[in-house]
Amino acid sequence: MRLVKTKENKRLIELSYEMMLNAYAPYSNFSVGAAILSENDKLFGGCNVENAAYPEGTCAEAGAISAMIAGGCKTIKEIYIVSKSENIVSPCGGCRQKIREFSSDQTKIFLCNIKWDYKLFSLNELLPFSFSEFDDL
Length: 137
Ligand code: THU
Prior knowledge:
Largest sheet: 5 strands, mixed
Distance between the termini: 34 Å
Number of domains: 1
Radius of gyration: 14 Å
Number of strands: 5
CATH architecture: 3-Layer(aba) Sandwich
Bound molecules: tetrahydrodeoxyuridine
Strand content: 15-25%
Low-confidence stretches: none
Shape: globular
CATH superfamily: Cytidine Deaminase, domain 2
Order of helices and strands: HEEHEHEEH
Structural class: alpha+beta
CATH topology: Cytidine Deaminase, domain 2
């Protein structure tokens, strides 16, 4: 489904796109941008940042979450993840767990491609039976 720009999602769409353009991905050539809407409706962004030692690169979601925590917020209401690809790309396993830490059942995870086709998921759909030392399976 194609994402339609509204008054509500405009800033998230634009920030995630800007983040994707700012990505530093010369090794994979796969740019990803993420934008978070937190509690109190604050916005935070991140992009993937690679380096010559490949596994040391960081994902866009991790960058956006770091910015959110550094900005004093703890809850993801919505996260938009967009990649420079015709495919709708799904967050890696590590990022799913990172998103989980700051999510609720209400958290909306929008996965978008470069043409703004998107799929909307809950955290539980992306990471069922997720790890928490406090929950009994
Ligand atoms: N990447 C992300 O930024 N987020 C993900 O969820 C998956 C992968 C980045 C990491 C790397 O810089 C590039 O995409 C290719 O894997």
